[in-house]
Write a structure and sequence with these properties.
eight-stranded mixed sheet
Length: about 150
């Protein structure tokens, strides 16, 4: 090899090494923890209604969902989730206003089976214990229905 070729190869190797070092430095700086007091503070324990972190965080605001989930035997089943404010309870039907405080998505009336599991403030309850103005989430699957109620 001539001196000129050795210089070119050496220059290319030097440039690659420099780019690699810069990339490693930037990657390390991006992942290194901050030394500010906010970053070093101990994380708080999340309560039942505290904001969540993670991939499922946007689902906490969902007002309606139709899900297809795998079941035993390689089959799939439909699960429906409705969430909103209770407008009225009449026998085995529950009327929910789905939406936010300022906008209504829709008002629906759900027919609930007699074996629906009702939880009010994390305790067992009955459909007749649900009052207008409470926040409710109804999960209807092929075999079970769950009604979760909490105070506004």
């Amino acid at each position: 090899m001539t001196g000129r070729k050795i210089a070119k190869v050496g220059g290319v190797i030097g440039a690659c090494a420099a780019l690699g070092a810069v990339g490693a430095y930037v990657g390390d700086a991006a992942s290194a923890p901050s030394t500010s007091s906010a970053a070093t503070a101990k994380p708080k324990q999340a309560g039942p209604n505290a904001p969540r972190r993670g991939a499922l965080r946007p689902l906490r605001r969902a007002v309606h969902a139709d899900l297809v989930v795998p079941a035993k035997g390689g089959k799939f089943v439909n699960v429906t989730v409705d969430r909103g404010v209770v407008e009225k309870v009449d026998g085995t039907s529950l009327t929910l206003k789905e939406g936010t405080k300022t906008a209504t998505y829709k008002t629906i009336t759900l027919d609930l089976p007699s074996n629906a599991v009702v939880r009010i403030k994390r305790k067992p309850g009955k459909l007749t214990d649900i009052k207008a103005g409470q926040h409710a989430t109804v999960v209807k699957g092929p075999n079970r229905t769950l009604v979760i109620v909490r105070q506004p």
